[in-house]
Amino acid sequence: MRGAAWSSCRRRASVPNTDAEPSKPFLWKIRVQAMQNQVAIVMCNRVGKEGDVTFAGQSVVVDPYGNVVSKADDQEQLIIADIGLTQTAAARKQRPFLELRRPEWYD
Length: 107
Known about the structure:
Nitrilase/N-carbamoyl-D-aminoacid amidohydrolase; two-stranded antiparallel ribbon; hydrolase activity; C-N_Hydrolase; hydrolase; Carbon-nitrogen hydrolase family protein; C-N_Hydrolase_sf
């Protein structure tokens, strides 16, 4: 995630297909990742059942500040969110986390 953000990524999509109910900590993790990397995150999760697996749903769109913009429940549904590219630029200017990155610590 950090590498994508550093290379000018402004939005990120994730399709986890989680079979357990997304917990509050899972949602907080997505929110923190969006904020720390200053990217909007679209997490699209599967719903329904396949074999013995029941998928959780609860897709979510989070802005670069970590705010939940739109969230689905555990049923199939369409969620819509408007996140402008200027919002990412503004977040990066207000909180320059990426500038504090220490690439020499990365391998």
